[in-house]
Amino acid sequence: PSTPHHTNRLINEKSPYLLQHAHNPVDWYPWGQEAFDKAKRENKVIFLSVGYSTCHWCHVMEEESFKSKEIGEIMNKHFVCIKVDREERPDVDKVYMTFVQATSGGGGWPMSVWLTPDLKPFAGGTYFPPEDGFQRIGFRTVLLRIAEQWKENKDALLESSNRILEALRQTSEIHVQGQESPPPSKEVMDTCFQQLSRSYDEDYGGFSKSPKFPTPVNLNFLFTYWALHRTTSEGAQALQMALHTLKMMAHGGIHDHIGQGFHRYSTDQHWHIPHFEKMLYDQGQLAAVYSRAFQISGDEFFADVARDILLYVSRDLSDQVGGFYSAEDADSYPTTTSGEKREGAFCVWAAEELRALLPDPVEGATEGTTLGDVFMHHYGVKETGNVDPMQDPHQELKGKNVLIAQCSPELTAAQFGLELGRLDSLLQECRHRLSTARAQRPRPHLDTKMLAAWNGLMISGFAQAGAALAEQEYVHQAAQAATFLRTHLFDPTSGRLLRSCYRGSDNSVEQSAMPIQGFLEDYVFVIQALLDLYEASLEQGWLEWALHLQQMQDKLFWDPKGFAYFSSEAGDPSLLLRLKGDQDGAEPTANSVTVINLLRAACYSGQMDWVEKAGQILAAFSERLQKIPIALPEMARATAIFHHTLKQVVICGDPQGEDTKEMLHCVRSVFSPNKVLMLADGDSTGFLYRQLPFLGSLERKDGKATAYLCSNFTCSLPVTSVQELRGMLS
Question: Would the CA dihedral through 465, 468, 474, 477 be positive or negative?
Answer without folding.
Answer: positive
